[in-house]
Amino acid sequence: MPAAARRRTPALAAIAALALSGCAGAPTEPSSGTFISHHGAEAAAAADAEHVVERRLAALSQPPATAQLEALEGKIARARRRFLAASRWEISENGEEENTGQAETELSEGTQQMLKGLTALRAYTVSRSPAELAEYRLRLRNARARWNQGISQIWFLAHRRGAPTI
Question: pTM of the predicted model, to two decimals?
Answer without folding.
Answer: 0.79
